[in-house]
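Dear H.,

Thanks for agreeing to be a second pair of eyes. The structure we're designing against is below in token form, covering all 186 positions.
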């Protein structure tokens, strides 16, 4: 990690989802309660960027560390493992794909990196995989991951239609993001 990480609420593991009672008290002093935090996000951000307390625990591993044991977990959990080998329709997000939908083969959830955590009490280092759905795209002769595309398994003939802008616009989190942008504009 960079040495430039500031030891404040923004990098404290207790500030995640406002679990820290000290932070909650400080936010209330600033007029923010847990129901308002989206409305006053900019104020909360300023408080978290400048406030630090004696209960600070970094969300990052701070070196040097003492390691008593390394636990390597090679298990990868795939929610759709029973669908491996099935055809999918996929629309990669990159501009170079020009909003084109391709035929692909679902390969399952494949590793995209490591997840590493350290327990300072037991001094154990836990290493596991981060995974993401992987699709081999025939026309591109490459693997495209779910996190960089819109995709779906083809169950029947009707699913062979292309993924349209309308399909994307009707995804719940796209609707939520658009609604947040509209409320910020007003």
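And this is the sequence the design step returned. I haven't edited it by hand at all.
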């Amino acid at each position: 990690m960079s040495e430039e990480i500031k030891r404040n609420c923004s990098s404290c593991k207790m500030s995640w989802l406002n679990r820290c009672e000290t932070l909650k008290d400080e936010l209330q002093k600033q007029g923010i309660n847990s129901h308002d935090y989206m409305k006053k996000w900019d104020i909360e951000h300023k408080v978290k960027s400048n406030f630090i307390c004696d209960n600070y625990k970094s969300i990052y591993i701070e070196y040097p560390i003492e390691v008593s044991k390394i636990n390597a977990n090679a298990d990868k959990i795939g929610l759709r493992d029973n669908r491996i080998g099935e055809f999918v329709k996929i629309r990669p997000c990159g501009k170079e794909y020009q909003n084109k939908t391709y035929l692909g083969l679902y390969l399952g959830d494949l590793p995209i990196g490591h997840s590493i955590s350290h327990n300072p009490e037991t001094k154990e280092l836990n290493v596991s995989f981060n995974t993401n759905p992987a699709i081999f795209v025939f026309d591109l002769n490459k693997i495209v991951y779910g996190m960089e595309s819109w995709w779906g398994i083809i169950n029947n003939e009707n699913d062979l239609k292309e993924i349209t802008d309308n399909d994307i616009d009707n995804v719940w989190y796209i609707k939520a993001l658009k609604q947040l942008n509209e409320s910020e504009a007003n």
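Two observations from my side: The CA atoms of residues 65 and 123 lie 8 Å apart. Residues 9-50 form one domain.

Warmly,
E.
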